[in-house]
Design brief:
By secondary structure, this protein is an all-alpha fold. The chain folds into 2 domains: 134 residues, no CATH class; 158 residues, MetI-like fold (Orthogonal Bundle), CATH 1.10.3720. The chain has 15 helices and no strands. Helix 12 runs antiparallel to helix 14. The mean pLDDT is 83. Keywords: Cell membrane, Membrane, Transmembrane, Transmembrane helix, Transport.
Length: 306
């Protein structure tokens, strides 16, 4: 297990290096970053000073080496917007994003498993069709539209919850529900499919012959044996949470890294944009690593395939 964990960690580090290289190449190919970051009427000396500050007046290979060596030690330069180290500014927003992600996940997974198992116990029944419709709605509804509708109903119409901001639980409910709605639908569909397939295996007939009820079979046996695809889609949804939080944080003015990223783009703050991309990529890679290690724990064959 330790060897597998070290191997997967090494692979994750390689992926992170690849992400950094891609970010550098994309920035290098979009045009002159200094021109993009400054107003059209900026004095030429200001433009030249910014190019020197960003190292854009160096040859390509030298600029690549200086940039990548700085990024590897966490030096993304200072934010042009706020005048502080860009990476530190991005990391300050991570707790807010993680809080929103964890609360959404803690709500989405139990609800999705409940819907999926209830559907799988009696496939084709009225309950199954109703729950399948709910899960399809979750997958189909756009996050930004749902967020605006929740604000309109619960904040504007009834005045029960704040429209935006950061603070106690009341500020967390609407963005967490918005972010959790689509994963509920997707995880529920995968859980239902995996459980229906598992319930057709021979050992299930043996358990039925022993007198176990369908609920007991699902909870104690089938759900555990079908955990791999459920964990797969759950890990994918966590990564989607981190990416999709950009939109949700903007709608609800949640002070996470998504809001900071949008602000950096609006102000053309290249060092801060690069730092935000790095932090989000690092969190997504960390999630994928945790999912891989969970595979190996639940299914030892994954260590051989990995």
């Amino acid at each position: 297990m330790l060897r597998y964990a070290l191997r997967r960690t090494f692979h994750s580090a390689i992926v992170m290096i690849g992400v950094l290289i891609v970010v550098f190449l994309v920035v290098d190919q979009i045009g002159d970053p200094a021109r993009l970051m400054l107003p059209a009427d900026a004095p030429i000396q200001v433009y030249l000073d910014l190019r020197a500050k960003l190292g854009l007046d160096e040859p390509f290979l030298e600029r690549f080496w200086h940039t990548m060596s700085g990024w590897f030690v966490g030096d993304f330069g200072d934010s042009l917007w706020q005048g502080v180290p860009a990476l530190g500014l991005a990391l300050q927003r991570v707790p807010a994003t993680l809080t929103l992600t964890i609360v959404s996940l803690a709500f989405a997974i139990p609800v999705a498993l409940l819907l999926g198992t209830r559907s799988a116990i009696k496939p084709g029944s009225l309950t199954d069709r109703l729950l399948t419709t709910v899960s399809l709605a979750g997958v189909s509804v756009a996050d930004f539209w749902l967020g605006l509708m929740l604000i309109l109903v619960f904040s504007v119409q009834f005045g029960l919850l704040p429209t935006s901001g950061f603070g106690g639980l009341e500020y967390l409910i609407l963005p967490a529900l918005t972010l959790a709605f689509r994963p509920i639908g997707r995880i529920a569909q995968i859980a239902r499919s995996a459980l229906v397939e598992e319930m057709q295996k021979p050992y299930i007939q043996t358990l039925r012959a022993k007198g176990l009820t369908e609920k007991q079979i699902v909870r104690k046996h089938a759900l555990k044996n079908s955990a791999i695809p459920i964990i797969t889609v759950s890990g994918d949804e966590i990564a989607t949470f981190l990416n999709g939080a950009v939109v949700i944080e903007t709608i609800f003015a949640w002070p996470g890294i998504g809001t900071l990223f949008i602000g950096a783009i609006e102000r053309r703050d290249l060092p801060l944009i690069e730092a935000c991309v790095f932090v989000v990529a690092l969190m997504v890679i960390a999630v994928n690593l945790i999912v891989d290690l969970t595979y190996a724990y639940l299914d030892p064959r994954a260590k051989i395939r990995g």
